[in-house]
Amino acid sequence: MTHLGILHQTFTLELGAGVFIKGDVRVNEEGGRKPVLLFAHGFKGFKDWAFFPYASERFARQDFAVVTFNFSHNGVNEHDFDELDKFGQNTYSQEQQDLSAVLSAVLEGKLPLAERLDNEQIVIVGHSRGGGNSVLLAAEHPEIRGVVTWNGIADVNLFGAAFREQVLQDGVGYVENARTKQQMPIGAVFFEDLDRNKEQLDITAKAAALRTPVLFIQGTQDSERLLEGYRSLQKAAPHHRFATLEGATHTFGAVHPFAGTTDDLERAIALTGAFFAPLLKRAAAGE
């Protein structure tokens, strides 16, 4: 499919019985192979949420080959949150497996439009929980040339102590989706995974040790939990880049269904492209 000069094809990666990653590849139809930009959604997000299709096309027009995807247990199959059973069994370790599977598919030329993807130049952008996941992925995969987080988390535990204890005791707890009003299940497996993999999932420590360049973009009108995490990252990993967007909310003012772009979203897109440009020039020069 082509939309105003942008080639767009879908894909499905099978990870096991009934476990899939569904995604999209967008790339400018002009020119040769393009640097690959992986674009990861966050908690209660999905590849077609709000600004993801729009921003993906904007990045494709900046000459990236953009890969968006649904994490295998994000709760979305055909439409938003029609697989709540999978959502309740999601873990960070599963999401890292998903990201590694997408990265491997790029490296092995198994995605659509593979002939247009320069798999020696790969970067990643993650929003919210996807931002934290992007840092964790880059810490394990030197193939990633650069990372940008959009209002990314610094702590994998998104919940309070009382909720954790209730889930571990009862086996499941619920959080409301403010938009759909659904009660979203969180299984005990989520917290068990955090306990079992504390070091591997320590976003702040991984960022502090990471030599792959990272840009952390943070809006000042986000939640206090994320703002506190942003300050922690600044303190722990001062060798990285930080961009504070005054007045920007967690979603840069964008809503779902998408009602159009915003100044803050455009600032995030512009900062992201400008950050990656010199990294990719160096990569192209073989440095």
Count of helical segments? Answer: 9
Shape: globular
As a percent range, the share of helical residues equals 25-40%
Described by strand count, sense and barrel closure, the largest sheet is:
9 strands, mixed
How many strands in all?
Answer: 11
Structural class, by secondary structure, is alpha/beta
- Which blocks of ≥5 consecutive residues have pLDDT under 50? none
Strand order of the largest sheet: 1-2-3-5-4-6-7-10-11
Query: What is the distance, rounded to the nearest whole angstrom, between the alpha carbons of the first and last residues?
Result: 35 Å
Strand content: 25-35%
Quaternary state of the chains? single chain
Supply database-style keywords:
287 residues; alpha/beta; nine-stranded mixed β-sheet; two-stranded antiparallel ribbon; 9 helices; globular
The gist of it:
The protein has helices spanning 52-61, 84-87, 92-107, 129-140, 161-170, 188-196, 203-209, 224-236, 263-284; strands at residues 2-3, 6-16, 19-28, 34-40, 65-69, 117-127, 144-150, 172-176, 183-187, 214-219, 241-245. The chain is of the alpha/beta class and 287 residues long. The strands form two sheets. Strands 1-2-3-5-4-6-7-10-11 form a nine-stranded mixed sheet, sandwiched between helices. A two-stranded antiparallel sheet has the order 8-9.
